[in-house]
Structure formats: C-alpha cells, structure tokens
C-alpha cells in the first residue's frame, strides 16, 4: 500500500503543471537574457561568449530537471550515468574541435 501511495505521489508530481510552468518561465528568462546581452552590446566579445555559455549550461539543467525529470524514479541512477558519459563526449568534441580550429588558424 505504501508503494502504491508513493507511486501515486510520483505520478501526481509528474503531472503537476506548476513544475512545467516554472521550467518554461525560467527557460524564457534565460533565453531572453542571452538575446538581450547580444543585442545590447553590453560586454566585449570574450566575456559575452563566456556569459552565453554559462546561460546555455543553465538552460540545459533547466531542461533536464523541469522537463525530463532526471532526478525522479526508482532504482539505479542510469540517467545520471548516461548524462555524465554524454557530457564527457560533448566536452571532448567541443574542445577538440576548438583546438583543431585554433591549430589550423596558427598554421596558415
């Protein structure tokens, strides 16, 4: 009975529109902030890129926790392990590409 109650509570938590609305509003705020920073020219290029990358990272976490429910569920945390592996792949691809492009620019 307790397991059924817990499952029902999780089902209600998934269906709560408040969580989706909060995630949607937070996503909009992060997107508008990045858009405004670019349009208003309030920073030089390097701080602007770093700020936009930070806002994009926050956007990823908002999507994962508010819409994809990464922390919810029972059993082993396969989602967490898959996310860590995916993050390693993405970091390797992005920084490897940047390194290769900067090396090519130095050679020419």
Automatic annotation (TrEMBL):
It is found in: Cell membrane. Signal peptide: none annotated. The keyword S-adenosyl-L-methionine does not apply. GO terms for cellular component: cytochrome o ubiquinol oxidase complex; plasma membrane. Its main location: membrane. Keywords: Cell membrane, Membrane, Transmembrane, Transmembrane helix. One of its GO terms (molecular function) is cytochrome bo3 ubiquinol oxidase activity. It holds the Pfam family COX4_pro. The keyword Transmembrane helix applies. It is a multi-pass membrane protein. GO terms for biological process: aerobic electron transport chain; electron transport coupled proton transport. The chain crosses the membrane at residues 21-42, 48-68, 80-101. Belongs to the cytochrome c oxidase bacterial subunit 4 family. This is Cytochrome o ubiquinol oxidase subunit IV. It comes from Collibacillus ludicampi.
């Amino acid at each position: 009975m307790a397991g059924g109650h817990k499952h029902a509570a999780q089902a209600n938590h998934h269906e709560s529109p408040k969580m989706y609305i909060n995630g949607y509003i937070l996503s909009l705020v992060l997107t508008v902030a990045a858009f405004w920073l670019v349009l208003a020219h309030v920073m030089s290029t390097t701080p602007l890129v770093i700020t936009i990358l930070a806002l994009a990272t926050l956007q990823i976490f908002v999507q994962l926790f508010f819409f994809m429910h990464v922390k919810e569920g029972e059993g082993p945390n396969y989602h967490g392990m898959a996310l860590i592996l995916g993050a390693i792949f993405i970091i390797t691809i992005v920084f490897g590409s940047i390194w290769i492009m900067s090396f090519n620019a130095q050679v020419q």
